[in-house]
């Protein structure tokens, strides 16, 4: 029998909010660690606090004053005898200065070593490393282009369409597709300027725009002892503005091509080994219609869509990530223990207009769920939650697991129908339309799905939703004897 050694209990500060803070707190508690949560002036009742053992208050309501304020976080860490910090995703999770500061303060950063964050945090240096070790990259440059003339020259060489891409970009921002030389000339300076303003770095790469591509990524987990494992692939091709909304595992495009699956996963492991990766991370690829695939970037943190991988492998990635950082034993002894079964789909529930797909901040006045078997909902919703423009619009992740893909889709439809969020505008009606789209049902889609199929045109004002609230109002009235 394989046994796991007992671990020492540590004090872990979660420097994040929302669903991921709850998720991390639960993992800390499962491992017997003390979960310390943060609350700020405009989130006194945050859901994650109920899963924490201790709470600290960060004065202020803007992110710059709270979750991004490194000096203040260090003060809190010292005052509370913190042993380790988990940054979640977004905020300081991929900030090499923060990781370095933790190192110098003698605090464990639950993430990879500083060098990994630096090399992989830059789309040029990570592409250079991939090229060095023979991992295929998108045709184009792996160094920032110096001038619009150079960009035009490279574009002519690789052929149009091309993509101008900020080396420091993220969250789908800092990218512009160009169909010809005029468009490169017209956009080059503007993309550079926008990137400088958004990411403090105006450097751009030029690469080939892969047509009708699939976004395929591989979940990696490595420990501090040199072991690197993969947890198979996820497909995240349903996107708006280059940002994911629906993800699934395994990839319907790879399907039962086990040789391709193995090749993609082993390529990701090769790159992770080359950078001495030592935590949970994701290697992203773009795959063409001919199934050739190219490295896009590595995200050196836990990703939003990690639950679908957990659902098909049965392994808790956050637990493993904490064990890895603390130098504790992972829950399994080797790659051969990581098996997959079934199919999982995640829908990101976002506070946004389902037709324009733009953020729609607002107040949650009611929240109920009624889910079938096989559903997991990681969320930060409660009656009274005020989603401000300062927060990420994603308020929850609905995950459906089925023995085969059709079952997962069926369960997701049922789950969407059983999710009631009152007051807040969300993309739920759009997600419902997508679940009914024949090409989605057949697994035939590329990253252009939303642009090509325009599912937002079919969104209606959700009469079911209204009917449910009329019913709730009637029940409430009866309860009050009205
Ligand atoms: P994934 O969803 O695959 O984990 P994303 O790139 O969508 O990865 O980013 C996850 C979170 O981090 C999102 O909340 C996104 O808005 C935020 N994020 C990622 N990169 C940046 C960046 N460079 N600047 C600001 N926010 C970012
Ligand atoms: P980010 O850091 O913003 O996540 P990525 O490089 O991971 O940036 O790209 C985000 C998305 O943009 C991809 O999932 C894909 O849809 C699109 N994309 C990026 N590079 C290319 C490319 N060369 N060809 C086609 N689409 C691309
Ligand atoms: Mg990406």
TrEMBL record:
- List, alphabetically, the SUPFAM superfamilies matched: Glutathione synthetase ATP-binding domain-like, PreATP-grasp domain, Rudiment single hybrid motif
The keyword DNA repair is annotated on this UniProt entry: no
What are the protein's GO molecular function terms? ATP binding; ligase activity; metal ion binding
Pfam families xref list: Biotin_carb_C, Biotin_carb_N, CPSase_L_D2
- Coiled coil (residue ranges): none
Q: Which domain of life is it from?
A: Bacteria
Protein name as catalogued: Biotin carboxylase
Q: Which PROSITE patterns match?
A: ATP_GRASP, BC, CPSASE_2
Where in the numbering of this chain does the ATP-grasp domain appear? Answer: 127-326
- Which UniProt keyword terms apply here? ATP-binding, Biotin, Ligase, Nucleotide-binding
Q: Where is the Biotin carboxylation domain?
A: 8-455
